[in-house]
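It is worth pausing here to work through a concrete case rather than discussing structure prediction in the abstract. The textbook approach is simple: state the sequence, then state the predicted structure, then interpret. We follow exactly that order.
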Amino acid sequence: MNTKKLYTALALAITLVSCTNDNPTTLMDDSTMVGLTTYTKNVKSIIDNNCVVCHAAVPKNGAPMPLVTYDQVKEAVLNRGLTTRISLQNGNGLLMPSGGPRMPQATIDIILKWQKEGLIEN
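Step two, the predicted structure:
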């Protein structure tokens, strides 16, 4: 066997052996690698850039409530259908932001991930 084949075989053997005894307590989950989604770090800027035009401290254009604070946004997700309204398709009269266009799916996914991870503030 030539040297190149020997090194290739050795590398393959090491790879196979090293992956057969994973200890679950030492493995990282996805949240440690990419971090949890939080209101302050990930969601606030989305709300500020897309919602606060109408959902200001004093709501405008018929908006029923402000979305200025963490508590207000959390309440809107839990009890006012915020994630449903932002997930509707263009052309649906209930889509938010009002009048569209729909936010990019990647942006909506950040808010959905925040909800899934427990609506963490900081």
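Step three, interpretation. Confidence is low (pLDDT under 50) at residues 10-33. Residues 31-116 form one domain.
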